[in-house]
Amino acid sequence: MTNLKLPEDFIFGGATAAYQVEGATSKDGKGRVAWDTFLEDNYWYTAEPASDFYHQYPVDLKLAEEFGVNGIRISIAWSRIFPEGYGEVNEKGVQFYHKVLDEAKKRGVEPFVTLHHFDTPEALHKEGDFLNRDTIDHFVNYAKFCFEEFGDKVNYWTTFNEIGPIGDGQYISGKFPPGIKYDFEKAFQSHHNMMLAHARAVKEYKEGNYKGEIGIVHALQTNYPYNPENSDDVRACKLQDILQNQFLLDATFNGKYSDETLEGVNNIFEVNGGNLDIKECDLEILNEAKDLNDFLGINYYMSDWIRAYEGKSEIFHNATGDEGSSVYRLKGIGEKVFDVDVPRTDWDWIIYPQGLYDQIMRVKNTYPNYKKIYITENGLGYKDNFENGKIDDQPRIDYVKEHFKAIHHAIEDGANVKGYFIWSLMDVFSWSNGYEKRYGLFYVDFDTQERFPKKSAYWYKELAETKEIK
Ligand code: BG6
C-alpha cells in the first residue's frame, strides 16, 4: 500500500464553538443570545451545562496537548464582550478569553479564533440580526476591539463560521432563531450582509497591521445531480449549489457575484418572490477584500444528491437520529434524495469523502486567489456507547480516516491544505439535535463533566505523531 503521509507542518486540530461548549450562559455579565430564548421555547434542552468549558478549559487544553492535538478552534461569544452587542465592555468576559488563550499557549495548542459562530447577541437579533445593516457596523466594531485586545495572542482569526447555514437555518429551514421558513429573499440578503461584514472586518485587520492571518469558514456541501443525464436534475443541483456554496465563494474570492450566480438567485426569486439589495458601494467593499483572505476554512460533513422538484417547499429536520426521517424539498430549487446507495449517518447525513476532495479542488480551480485551506470542521455525529469508561467509536475513526485520504489526494493534486480540525475536540451540545449527537474525541459525561478519551482519540494521537494515515 502506498504511504499516505501528511506534511510535517500540518495542524491536527480539534474544533469547538463558544455557545456549544462554554455553558455559563448568564455568568459574569454575559448578555443573552437569540438561541437562549429559541431553545427554551422550541427544544427539549438548553446550552446549560454544555461542556462547561467556561471552567473546564484547562482540562480540555491539557487533554489536547496529551493527545497530540496541536490546534484548537474556539469562538469568542460576542455577548460576553459586549452584552448588548455594542456599548460598554464586559471586563470579566474579556478576561475569560485572555485566560483561555494563555492556557492554549502554555499547552502548545495553536488557537484559531472565530468572531461569530451563530451567536448574535439577542439585543441585535431583535433588531433584525444581519438583515439590519446597523449590525454590520456593530460587528466590525466588535471585531476591531478583539483585534486590539487579543491581537498579540492570536495568529489566526476567522470572521464568520458558516454564513450559509446561518441564513438558511434562520430563514429557510427555520431551525435557527427566528425560525422563519422558506423566505429566500431574507436568506440571500443575510448571506450578502454577512459577507459585507466579513469584508469590512478583513479590511480593518489588514489596515491595522496586526501580526496574524485572517479568513472565513464556509460550510461547503457537495451536490450531485440525481440523474446526471436529466437536465432538470442538473439545473436543480446547480441552484442548490448556488444557495449553499457558490454565492458565498463568489463574494469571498471574486468580490462580486458571477452572472451565473445572479441568474440562479433570480430563478429562485421568480418562483418564490424576492429581491436582493446589493448596493454599488457593497461591491466596492467586497472587491477590496477579495484578495485579502489569508485562508479559507472548509467545514465539510456530507454530500447530497439533488433531483428536480416542482411541489411546495417542505423540510423536516431529523433532530433525533431516527434514520430515514429527513425531508428537504424546496420549491423552485430541488429535492434531496436521501435513499441513494451511499452510507449515511443516523441523522441522514450522506457520508461521501469524495465530496470533500471535490470541494477542495473546486476552490483551487475556480478561485485561484485562495491562498490556503484549513479543513475547519469534519467529523461523525454518533450515538457513542459508554462502557466502563471505554468508548469504541470505530465508525468515527473510519469516517475521519477516509476524509483524511481525500485531503491527502487533494494535496497530491496541488491543493494547499494546511490543517484539519476534527469536529469536535470534546463532546458538545448540538444546536438543533441536543446532547445525544456526539462528535468528540473526548467523551463528556454531561452530569459530572468528566472527560474520557474515546478510541478515536488514541487513533488521532497516532496520526498526529506519525502523520501517516493508517
Ligand atoms: C457545523 C457547525 O454546521 O456543524 C457546528 O459549525 C455544528 O456548530 C456542526 O455543531 C455539526 O452539526 P450538528 O447539527 O450535527 O450539530
From TrEMBL:
<dbReference type="InterPro" id="IPR005928">
    <property type="entry name" value="6P-beta-galactosidase"/>
</dbReference>
<feature type="binding site">
    <location>
        <position position="299"/>
    </location>
    <ligand>
        <name>D-galactose 6-phosphate</name>
    </ligand>
</feature>
<feature type="active site" description="Nucleophile">
    <location>
        <position position="377"/>
    </location>
</feature>
<feature type="binding site">
    <location>
        <position position="20"/>
    </location>
    <ligand>
        <name>D-galactose 6-phosphate</name>
    </ligand>
</feature>
<dbReference type="InterPro" id="IPR033132">
    <property type="entry name" value="GH_1_N_CS"/>
</dbReference>
<dbReference type="GO" id="GO:0005829">
    <property type="term" value="C:cytosol"/>
</dbReference>
<feature type="binding site">
    <location>
        <position position="439"/>
    </location>
    <ligand>
        <name>D-galactose 6-phosphate</name>
    </ligand>
</feature>
<keyword id="KW-0326">Glycosidase</keyword>
<comment type="similarity">
    <text>Belongs to the glycosyl hydrolase 1 family.</text>
</comment>
<feature type="binding site">
    <location>
        <position position="437"/>
    </location>
    <ligand>
        <name>D-galactose 6-phosphate</name>
    </ligand>
</feature>
<feature type="binding site">
    <location>
        <position position="430"/>
    </location>
    <ligand>
        <name>D-galactose 6-phosphate</name>
    </ligand>
</feature>
<keyword id="KW-0378">Hydrolase</keyword>
<feature type="binding site">
    <location>
        <position position="162"/>
    </location>
    <ligand>
        <name>D-galactose 6-phosphate</name>
    </ligand>
</feature>
<dbReference type="GO" id="GO:0019512">
    <property type="term" value="P:lactose catabolic process via tagatose-6-phosphate"/>
</dbReference>
<dbReference type="GO" id="GO:0008422">
    <property type="term" value="F:beta-glucosidase activity"/>
</dbReference>
<dbReference type="InterPro" id="IPR001360">
    <property type="entry name" value="Glyco_hydro_1"/>
</dbReference>
<protein>
    <recommendedName>
        <fullName>6-phospho-beta-galactosidase</fullName>
        <ecNumber>3.2.1.85</ecNumber>
    </recommendedName>
</protein>
<dbReference type="Pfam" id="PF00232">
    <property type="entry name" value="Glyco_hydro_1"/>
</dbReference>
<feature type="active site" description="Proton donor">
    <location>
        <position position="162"/>
    </location>
</feature>
<comment type="pathway">
    <text>Carbohydrate metabolism; lactose degradation; D-galactose 6-phosphate and beta-D-glucose from lactose 6-phosphate: step 1/1.</text>
</comment>
<feature type="binding site">
    <location>
        <position position="431"/>
    </location>
    <ligand>
        <name>D-galactose 6-phosphate</name>
    </ligand>
</feature>
<dbReference type="InterPro" id="IPR017853">
    <property type="entry name" value="GH"/>
</dbReference>
<feature type="binding site">
    <location>
        <position position="117"/>
    </location>
    <ligand>
        <name>D-galactose 6-phosphate</name>
    </ligand>
</feature>
<dbReference type="GO" id="GO:0033920">
    <property type="term" value="F:6-phospho-beta-galactosidase activity"/>
</dbReference>
<feature type="binding site">
    <location>
        <position position="161"/>
    </location>
    <ligand>
        <name>D-galactose 6-phosphate</name>
    </ligand>
</feature>
<dbReference type="InterPro" id="IPR018120">
    <property type="entry name" value="Glyco_hydro_1_AS"/>
</dbReference>
